Amino acid sequence: MTPSRASAGRVLDLSGLATYAYGNRSLMWWGTLGLILIESTVFALGVVTYLYLRERTAEWPPHQQLPSLLYGTVNLIIMILSGIPNQWTKRAAEQEDRRKVQVGLLICLIFAAAFLVIRGFEFGALHTAWNDSAYGSIVFALLLLHTVHLATDFYDSAVLTVLMITGPISGKRFVDVSENAFYWWFVVASWVVIYATVYIVPRLT
Amino acid sequence: MTEHRNSRETQRPQPGEEGRQWLDPPGFYGWLTTVDHKRIGRRYIVTAFLFFACAGLMALTMRLQLARPNGHLVGPDFYNQLFSTHGSIMMFLFAVPVMQAMGVYLVPLQVGARNIAFSRLNAFSYWMFAFGGIMILTVFALNTGPEAGWFSYVPLAGPQYSAGKRQDFWAQMITFTEAASLIVAIELIVTAFKLRAPGMTLNRVPLFVWAQVVTSFMVLFAMPSVMLASSFLMSDRLVSTQFFNPAEGGDALLWQHLFWFFGHPEVYIIFVPALGIISAIIGTFARRPPFGYLALVLSLVVTAFLAFGLWVHHMFATGLPPLGMSFFTAASILIAIPTGVQIFCWIATLATGGRLEIRTPLLFVIGFFFIFIIGGLTGVMLASASLDSQLHDNYFVVAHLHYVLIGGAVFPLFGGVYYWFPKMTGRMLSELAGKWNFWLFFIGFNMTFFPMHILGLDGMTRRIYTYDAASGWGNLNLLATVGAIIIGLSVVVFFANVLVSMRSGARAAPDPWGGKTLEWATQSPPEPCNFPRIPVVESRYPLAEPELAYVTGLPTQFRAMLVTRLHDAAPDHVTADPYPTIWPLLSALATTVFFIGTVFTPWGLVWGPVPVAIALTCWFWPKAKEVEIQRRVEIKPQAARPAPVLRAGATP
Amino acid sequence: MMGRLSNARFRWLAVGCALLAPPGCSSNHAAMNPAGPRARSIAELMLGFVSVSTVVYLIVSAVLVWAIARRRRAGTSDDWLQRGSSEQSNVRSRQVISWATALTVLILLTLALCDYFVMHGLSSRPTDSLRILVTGHQYWWEVEYDDPDPSRRVRTANELHIPVGKPVELVLTSQDVIHSMWMPNLSGKKDLIPGHQNTEVLLADRPGTFSGQCAEFCGLQHAKMRLMVYAEPPKQFAAWKQAQLQDARNPSNDIQRHGLEVFESSTCILCHTIQGTQAAATVAPDLTHLASRTTIAAGALPNTQSNLASWILAPHRFKPGVQMPATQLQPDDLAALAAYLASLK
Is residue B1's pLDDT more than 70? Predict the structure, then answer.
């Protein structure tokens, strides 16, 4: 600031402010929200594309078996259940209990690994290929999109887990763990929507 | 224009304790690793203008080919690459990035922040943008440029009718540039929401910042559509998905819906920041606050919402039901209203302000009015589905889009460059050259594009590499080409002005125009941390106050940034801005290899992410020494002392 | 009644557009030179919008110039005028802007309403129309006159003959990429989209020759994909149609006979049809009455015997990127072929 602007007069002393904060006080929360808005738009457009293509096709799925419900539903259950360790870890992070966070993150990782494995089986049980028809293409696209989110969430949870174990840790790492939970909820919520689109919609008359 | 009351700064004072934290490493390594939003914003602007020049040369080549009937300068294949690459570069590598770059540079300064939020991501986004642009220019030079227009309709752009890798490179360029844009959009929103100086309530946020925030939200919701569409296109071409193949249940119109759902907001993404520039310049030059702050802000917001409800007007010729067309006609006509309100407010500001000195920034803003309004009126014509059936896909539309984009965005942009160049570089641009720049541009532009309205009405369709003499289109085309050459001259004058002034222009004071927003409270150019002492804002135009209070007590052991609350900008906590790092650049290189790899093989999708993941992990991994320092001065949220209450009695 | 009314309106229209856009207002590919009621209703709407736009532009420009000129003369040297919201100039501004906005809304709504009425008129489907199927190809127009009796379907390429005064319903689709049919004097444009079927109505109320280009970028020779429309008095149209339904003329001399032999023994028959000969492929334009057309290659060349020969020998010289391959023929074979084709009236 140029000298003549800075007066000797009024100041605002902020020396007592915290050096990090949780929830929507933190920049990470807002960044994560931005990412969630973007990805939600991608998913919404994907679902709209699915419905658009279905509208233009007499038989849906065209000359194909319906995707089998088993693995998708198993994943749905696992994902909703994963909310429990997710929430627990988030709370542990906000309490800044490093031990608890390490345990929680490891449990979350196990859940994530489980649904990645089951996702593999899901792809096999779709009864269609991506190059069969527009139906196959959009079904694969929706599932692939979600899998990418699963994979990135798995990876960054893994990185956080390692970091929590090895250090170096400062307060704001706990904020990162807390925000990771925020993103995890988005992965779960988006799966509910994709599951409904891929598995339930073609079964409606 | 009287110089501001302060004496000219001839020497930059040495950075104090706060300042030292914010220095970049010296030399080229500092240039590669910087996370300073000003350095990144400047290189973004420079790079975007370089792309602008390339695309301009392409346009000139097309105009030379079309100057006479049966031109032989270029053949149809090269011509198709010319117009496709010209449009793609102008839209994806110039117009949007340069507007976002103005935000990257100015938003932190205008809100009183020391840096942009997520400053390393900012660096990463620049490299992604630059590498995407280098890729498309390289493939163009290698005769593998895009060939299906900037909007790449299928089935023409699909695997059956567009051989080779041309459209794959086009689609991947989209991925590069949209990723960069999305990242910058998040940064700008978070900066404007959470890094404002204490006391800058939403009611006191500068109009330029509002425009950038509104634009950033449009980016968040529009860009995913084109990313999805271009991914579908690439997968149709690479791995035989059937999204756009009617024979297998796909639909050619699906592309158009997905593309234009992005494409219409895209033009507002380009236009709305320019509206912010105009408010800033008019406010300063009219020597009064822009009239109708609330109306101006609401107009921006309404424009953004309406922008998402218009896309079908690009598809009026595709055989849609008449009722649907009437709806989109109505919506497309209505969006003229908020823009009209803004124009009225600006004219009122000019009419009721103080003495006007018509310097180059204001000249370009005046040029905006005369050119953009024509574009807006032809836009209303195109909005009418009946008229559009005659006007669509011919030179009338080419005229319209250039009137609104050049009049509505490029003219204000040039005005903004003349206005903020002193702040960004510490030098004034030449007024004489500025006036030549303006008049050559204004005259050349109208000479080039006005005749195109007539050509369109006379049946000249778009994207044709030649026409015959019997059509009668020769004379107007010749006139347009002469105009294009004049535009080229004006751009040469501009670049010359910039290059010469950077070296020997008059040195700029902190506030050479008498602007009243916070960026004018910093040096020209600002020191690395922008505000060694963060100001406390008590009105909408802080520099109109007799004095500014400021913040003390922020830590100096790291790059302290003050985070405030969204609704009232009350101080909330302090966060550490990252130090310069090479990892954004390395991550961008890894991502580039990933993206370009997938153009050639689907296995790129599997292996490409590996180096990216490694680079991102190294980027994220905290340094022990930095963590140690932060821990030493750490104040946990529960242990923090509540922030003092701001003094009451401040007026907007 | 329609004739008299439309003549009066047409004169007014011609004056209006002569004032506003002198060049290119009278060509056979101009939107402001309507030859039928559909194009005329659009042209009138256009004139209305342009007039309103011109007036608005002049007013706003004048106010802007006034505002700038006024403030340049003002002598105050105040550094920054903080204007309170109750200050007189602000109150006045608010009033003016409110009225201007209200007026803008009114004008825009009126324009939207005018468009609605024109659109409503344009979307009515006539019941007694002549149906023609037009299929877009890279880079030519396939034309088939619909008829319940398959033997009465005229097939041609790159041109339409339509009777004056009778609505013609075009059924539009494409075999490859998206094209767009646009005859500015007769109607707005409509896309030809693979996998979709669109309709557009043409109605001419005076005879004439009209020209239009493909209006959706479709590849290398998008620039040379012209469609001609000949609006003819009903008797002339009927005669033309009758002639088109005949099989191809038999060769009338030895050279032409040789030409037919060359045709049937070359690659020509892989793509083209000549009714009454062995050639029956439908990949490329129907050549049965080729010589009755004024141009070849969708308007790229005038239809003369020598142009035919040059085209056959090297189509890519005139339309690089066209689907038709070059045909290697001995000079006298080529001349005979061209002579035969030139006889197919």
Answer: no
